[in-house]
Amino acid sequence: MKKLTGIVMSLAFVLCAVSVQAVPLDENCNNNADCNDDVVYCNGVPSCSSETSKCVAGTPVSCESDGLFCNGPEVCSEDIEGCVSQGNPCSYSCLEETDQCVECITDDNCTDNNTPFCVENTCVACRVETDEDCDNGLFCDGAETCDNGTCFDGEPPCGDNQTMPSALSFCNEETDQCVECFEDFDCSDNGTPRCDGVMCVECLDDFDCDNGTFCREGVCAVQACDLIIKPRQVRINKMFRPVERRFRITGGEGFDPYAKLDFGLIRVRRAAVSRKGVLKVLTTIPAGAIPNKGPYEIRVGDCVGEIILR
Ligand SMILES: [Ca+2]
Ligand SMILES: [Ca+2]
Ligand SMILES: [Ca+2]
C-alpha cells in the first residue's frame, strides 16, 4: 500500500511539472496562467490574449498622485511592490501652497552668514529697509544701510582721516567719537600743543603753563588763585537724603567773591558776601549724586579750591 502511494505521488509531481511549463511572450497559450511573468512587478503581469491566443506583455503599474507636490511624484517601487513617493523634488525648500521650489521659507533655511534673512522665499543680507541688519558694529566706517535686501557701506563720520588735521578728523572707535587728536603728536598748532584725548589744548596741567599762570580747562589762565574753604571736609558716607551745608570761602590774590560760582553737582541755594569780603554759601548736597569720595573741585570765578568728600 505504501508503495502504491509513492507511485501515485511521483506521477502527480511529473504531471504538475508539465502543466506549469511557462510560455514566453508572443508564443501560443491557452490561458493567462500559461504566460511567463518576468518577476518584475512594475511592468505588470503578462496575459494570454483571447484574440490571438498568444502571451502579451502586462500593463505597467500606474501610481496615482497623492496630491502633494513636496513629497515628489508617486512611482512604482520594485522593492515594496507598490507605489511610493519619490521624495522632495527641491534642492532647497519646497512650497506646498504653490507647488514651487524656493530658496527659503524661514530664516532657518538661510545658512549663509552673508544672507541670513528669508524675504519672499529668497535669502538676503537684510530685511527690507532694516538698517540694523547691516550694522557691522563699527562707528568709524559709518552707518551701514539696507536697500531692498542688500547692505551698503556708510560714510565715515569723521571724514577722510588726516586730510584736515585741524578739524575733528580722527575717529575714536572706542568712544564712537570724532576727535582732533589722539596724542600730542597730532597737534600741529604751537598754541595748542597738548592733546586732551579729544581736542588740542594749551595745557593739560599747571606744568604746561608759564609765568605763574595755571591750567584751567585746557587754557593757561592769567588770573588764578586758590580758594580757602571752610569746612574743608564734608561727610557724604551713608547719606540717604540731601543735606544742607554752609561754606565760608576766601581766596588768594585775584579772588572775587562776587564772581560766578561753580559747585558742580552741589547745588548753590544762596550766597552772600560779608563786610570783610568772605563769601558765604548755603548749599544742598544731593544724596547719591556724587559717586566718588575724595577731592571735589569748587570754583569762584577764576579761583579754584577743593573740599574733601568723606
Ligand atoms: Ca512583470
Ligand atoms: Ca506626491
Ligand atoms: Ca559701521
Would you kindly provide a written description of the structure presented here, covering whatever features stand out?
- Among the domains are: 93-124, no CATH class; 224-309, Sandwich (Immunoglobulin-like), CATH 2.60.40.
- It has one helix spanning 2-19, and strands at residues 47-48, 55-56, 74-77, 82-85, 93-95, 100-102, 117-119, 122-124, 145-147, 150-152, 170-172, 177-179, 194-195, 200-201, 214-216, 219-221, 225-230, 233-234, 243-251, 261-262, 267-273, 279-285, 294-300, 303-309.
- It has 310 residues and is mostly beta strands.
- The N and C termini lie far apart (128 Å).
- It is built from 1 helix and 24 strands.
- Residues 4-20 have low confidence and may be disordered.
- The radius of gyration is 48 Å and the shape is rod-shaped.
- It binds calcium ion (3 copies).
- One calcium ion (CA) binds at residues 37-38, 40, 43-45, 58.
Strand-helix topology:
Elements: H1 2-19, E1 47-48, E2 55-56, E3 74-77, E4 82-85, E5 93-95, E6 100-102, E7 117-119, E8 122-124, E9 145-147, E10 150-152, E11 170-172, E12 177-179, E13 194-195, E14 200-201, E15 214-216, E16 219-221, E17 225-230, E18 233-234, E19 243-251, E20 261-262, E21 267-273, E22 279-285, E23 294-300, E24 303-309
Parallel strand pairs: 17-24, 18-24
Antiparallel strand pairs: 1-2, 3-4, 5-6, 7-8, 9-10, 11-12, 13-14, 15-16, 17-19, 19-22, 20-23, 21-22, 23-24
